[in-house]
Design brief:
The protein is of the alpha+beta class. It contains 2 helices and 5 strands; from the N terminus they run αβββαββ. The chain has a single domain, classed as 2-Layer Sandwich (HIT family, subunit A). The structure holds guanosine-5'-monophosphate and zinc ion.
Length: about 120
Amino acid sequence: MSHHHTDDNCIFCKIVAGKIPSKKVYEDEDIFAFHDIAPWAPVHLLMIPKAHIPSLAQVGPEHEALLGRMMVLASKLAAQEGCNPYPDGGFRLVSNTGTEGGQEVHHLHIHVMGGPRPWLRG
Ligand code: 5GP
Ligand code: ZN
């Protein structure tokens, strides 16, 4: 039983709960990270808060620490999962927000992409 707010119809909430399997790369009290099911770069992870926050459009001052931790974690997970070191390697963070932002899953997530080019997209 989680103390986080969840949405029963949300696929990322189901992934956090283990109801949908995923290739997990990281988990702590507030954050979960796993491999994207349809990667378009050699490394393609999704980092999500365990709480069901629909998108970056819904965040406020109460989320500053969480988002800060996710930004710092991104670099660590990128390296851990095989992204080459900065500056010749590196990685890309993307958080699609809303329909015009290209968001398909409405649970806040940060794509962490990297690895040798060319990539499938981007
Ligand atoms: P968005 O377009 O909302 O920014 O990205 C959603 C991402 O979630 C897509 O890259 C898609 O491949 C990924 N995705 C959707 N469903 C699943 C799933 O069930 N498992 C995993 N691991 N990734 C998923
Ligand atoms: Zn959710």
